[in-house]
Automatic annotation (TrEMBL):
It comes from Pseudopedinella elastica. The keyword Plastid applies. Its main location: plastid. One of its GO terms (cellular component) is chloroplast. This is Chaperone protein DnaK. SUPFAM superfamilies: Actin-like ATPase domain, Heat shock protein 70kD (HSP70), peptide-binding domain. Keywords: ATP-binding, Chaperone, Chloroplast, Coiled coil, Nucleotide-binding, Plastid. Belongs to the heat shock protein 70 family. InterPro entries: ATPase_NBD, Chaperone_DnaK, Heat_shock_70_CS, HSP70_peptide-bd_sf, Hsp_70_fam. The keyword Electron transport does not apply. NCBIfam families: PRK00290.1, prok_dnaK. Acts as a chaperone. PANTHER family: HEAT SHOCK PROTEIN 70KDA (PTHR19375). It is found in: Plastid, Chloroplast.
Length: 595
């Protein structure tokens, strides 16, 4: 039986899960980790890096390190706020889509291609884990993603050589992971606080049907904000104690950010944490270190505003779903940042409910996607999963009025036809404007695309009969067909938005991605070597700062570059390690025997 992966393609991190022996399991990546940063980078030499290895070198290669690409996939630049566009890599705003410029390669990528590299790595690592090739996946997207964003996510899968068997909503996946689909009519609030985004969804779940009643959130709120306030706290403290400002030192900031995240995570289980960063900067009087203690109470005080910012979207989602908190049956936590005790306390205080958190919040979405994958592959048999259209769909008619063809909350897949006619005598063509939304006027709803049906035989107005059919497939992707009954002339469009990639584009991107993957494999060894080298150099540098008079080490450091070839590496590594051992020896307190 072909396995179908469940993939949570996140803004910050991604997770893969699969059904093994009727239970969902999370698959570790090649680095042994259960989550993989959704980060892609290209080095100066043109090497492709994906995941942890790409994240780690972000600070020294910010313009060629692509993260948070999910913000841009299938997105119209006009619909994204200026702050949401702030990333250190060059972003090209085209009329209906974003492109990403990679300076190291002098090449322009679509967000689909970058996401495809993440998907390719996830699927590749999963194939290795399972010992069999996998070519199918269920991929999750936020509930508020529109058709274009969903289609773009599917295209990313295609470019990665994956057939995306189904796109499902993240809160739906989270509910599935908890088996909530088996209950009858429960109202579930899904609180999803990840690394950089915050989503709240209210769903009505039961008997296999998931209906998204409302969504709210903040695309610029997440765990990174907590890291930032700890970094600020440490910077202020250091400046106060030492009179040195470190805000412009990117290496120092990177180290501070890593340590801040670690401290934050520790404070989820401990009452206080020690923060030590040796050699944060050098001064004429010697190296300086950061040594601080942060208590949970202090951390909560510092982050009070961020925590409070999570309140409004929950209240908004409840009010949009026309529910009061006493009508909620379940609260589900998703995303690593929901491990913060103050966040859990906030959710409890707003909803009056102890949140459901027995499934790991980083993994719950991927696990739900794997359950859906199991349903599709036949490995899971006791679930019938039906999704619904979140918004009504229709066409613009005379006077700019929206005529609904499919009303919201219709179970998908679905197909429905309506008859329309011309509004003027001898009208040879009709323009079909496809609309999504609940408002009466076309201009208040979202236009998903337009097309023209031509060749209508001349006739008085209202005489021609034009059959318009809306067809929504299991992924929620819509095809609209218009047919003139008199001539049989037909015109159709699949609504993927105007930024949709053509089949040719996708084919080209697949072959380019494969080419890079092959190159990547070839060069992986050399990348690992230079990483290891950098690591060693870093360690020796620290020793050198402790003993700046050591001439031998000075020469060794000057001579070393991290981009040496593999042949030279072994020789120099031995020299470095020897030097390191020597220092380790000198730094070891004298034993009694040697005294
Ligand atoms: P996600 O996007 O769901 O992978 O969430 C990632 C975010 O969760 C990052 O900001 C992490 O620092 C944060 N995170 C992970 N584990 C914890 C924890 N135990 N306590 C606080 N934050 C955490």
């Amino acid at each position: 039986m072909q396995k179908i992966l469940g993939i949570d393609l996140g803004t910050t991190n991604s997770v893969v899960s699969v059904i093994e022996g009727s239970q969902p399991v999370v698959i570790r990546n090649i680095d042994g980790l259960r989550t993989t940063p959704s980060v892609v980078a290209y080095t100066k030499k043109g090497d492709l890096l994906v995941g942890q290895i790409a994240k780690r070198q972000a600070v020294i290669n910010p313009e060629n390190t692509f993260y948070s690409v999910k913000r841009f996939i299938g997105t119209n630049p006009k619909e994204l706020s200026a702050t949401a566009k702030e990333v250190p890599y060059p972003l090209i705003e085209e009329e209906n889509s974003f492109k990403i410029k990679c300076l190291n390669l002098d090449k322009v990528f679509t967000p689909e291609e970058i996401s495809a590299q993440v998907l390719r790595k996830l699927a590749g690592d999963a194939s290795r884990f399972l010992g069999q090739p996998v070519s199918q996946a269920v991929v999750t997207v936020p509930a508020y993603f529109n058709d274009t964003q969903r289609q773009a996510t599917k295209d990313a899968g295609k470019i990665a050589g994956l057939e995306v068997s189904r796109i499902i909503n993240e809160p739906t996946a989270a509910s599935l992971a908890y088996g909530l689909d088996k209950k009858t009519n429960e109202r579930v609030l899904v609180f999803d606080l990840g690394g950089g985004t915050f989503d709240v969804s209210v769903l009505e779940v039961g008997d296999g049907i998931f209906e998204v009643l409302s969504t709210a959130g903040d695309t610029r709120l997440g765990g990174d904000d907590f890291d930032r306030i700890i970094v600020d706290y440490l910077l202020d403290d250091f400046e106060k104690k030492e009179g040195i400002a470190l805000r412009k030192d990117s290496q120092a900031l990177q180290r501070l950010t890593e340590v801040a995240e670690k401290a934050k995570i520790e404070l989820s289980t401990l009452d206080e944490t020690k923060i030590n960063i040796p050699f944060i900067t050098g001064t004429p009087t010697g190296p300086k270190h950061i040594a601080s203690v942060l208590t949970r109470v202090e951390f909560e005080k510092l982050s009070a505003q961020i925590i409070d910012n999570c309140r409004k979207p929950v209240e908004q989602a409840l009010s949009d779903a026309r529910l009061t908190k006493d009508k909620l049956d379940q609260v589900v936590l998703v995303g690593g940042s929901t491990r913060i005790p103050a966040i859990q306390a906030l959710v409890k205080s707003i909803t009056d409910k102890a949140p459901n958190q027995t499934v790991n919040p980083d993994e719950v979405v991927a696990v739900g996607a794997a359950v859906q994958g199991g349903v599709l592959s036949g490995e899971v048999t006791d679930i019938l999963l039906l999704d619904v259209t979140p918004l009504s769909l229709g066409v613009e008619t005379l006077g700019g009025i929206m005529a609904k063809v499919i009303t919201r909350n219709t179970t998908v897949p679905t197909k429905k036809s309506e008859y329309f006619s011309t509004s003027q005598d001898n009208q040879p063509s009709v323009q079909i404007n496809i609309l999504q939304g609940e408002r009466e006027l076309a201009s208040d709803n979202k236009s998903l695309g337009e097309f023209k049906l031509e060749g209508i035989p001349l006739a008085p107005r209202s005489v021609p009969k034009i059959e318009v059919t809306f067809d929504i497939d299991v992924n929620g992707i819509l095809t609209v067909r218009a047919k003139d009954n008199a001539t049989g002339a037909e015109q159709s469009v699949t609504v993927e938005g105007s930024s949709k990639l053509s089949e040719d584009d996708i084919e080209r991107m697949i072959s380019e991605a494969e080419q890079f993957a092959a190159q990547d494999k070839e060069r992986r060894e050399s990348i690992e070597v230079s990483n290891e080298m950098e690591n060693l150099i870093g360690k020796v540098k620290v020793k050198f700062e402790e003993d700046p008079t050591n001439e031998g080490l000075k020469i060794l450091l000057k001579d070393l570059k991290s981009d040496i070839n593999i042949e030279d590496f072994e020789k120099r590594k031995a020299a470095l390690e020897q030097a390191q051992q020597k220092f380790a020896f000198f730094n070891t307190p004298p034993t009694e025997e040697s005294n």
